[in-house]
Amino acid sequence: MTPPRGEQREDAVLRAALELLAEIGYGSLTMDAVAARAKASKATIYRRWSGKAELVIAAIERHTATADQPAPDTGTLRGELLALLTSMRDRLTGESAALVLGLLTAMRDDPALAAAVRARLIGVKRDAFAPALRRAAERGEITTTPDHELIAEVASALLFSRLFVTGEPLDDAFLDRLADAVILPLVHGATT
């Protein structure tokens, strides 16, 4: 069954906003450009969103809602950590990376936009490790549940640094090192 025309139009507008954010950044994004890319009128866009910030926030929320997936249950803490790190890497090297880069400068100048980006793109990552750590505690692999927010922040920072700062590969070998040399010691350091 095809979604109603209004939903199709909204999807097209939000997709256009995300594409333009990734291509030209927040500062260069205009409602005219979104309308042209979505093949919609500006009036259609303004009936739903009052301005660029509201449109971008809605696009980010839609994007992250469809990208969010629960932590996989692989049966081992290391397996789950690697699955989470792989998912984070794949999202970061995909469209999310371009979105974050397109928004970094704008976040400094627009507090509402910054709050929405932090809540949806960064906040989601902070909770990503909690289910895996809880399951590891239930299986007896760890005796307490460590600070999942700190673990997520460290993992995100190292992935971000590799991708945008050092340019070193984000291959499976690096993910293995990250899990074994950084994340697992953090987890086990909290349980001793």
TrEMBL record:
InterPro entries tied to this protein: DNA-bd_HTH_TetR-type_CS, Homeodomain-like_sf, HTH-type_TetR-like_transc_reg, HTH_TetR, Tet_transcr_reg_TetR-rel_C_sf, TetR_C
Keyword set includes Transcription: yes
Ranges where the HTH tetR-type domain occurs: 7-67
The keyword Cytoplasm is annotated on this UniProt entry: no
Domain of life: Bacteria
PANTHER family: HTH-TYPE TRANSCRIPTIONAL REGULATOR RUTR, TETR-FAMILY TRANSCRIPTIONAL REGULATOR
Name of protein: DNA-binding transcriptional regulator, AcrR family
A GO molecular-function annotation: DNA-binding transcription factor activity
Residue ranges for the DNA-binding region feature of this UniProt entry: 30-49
Keywords: DNA-binding, Transcription, Transcription regulation
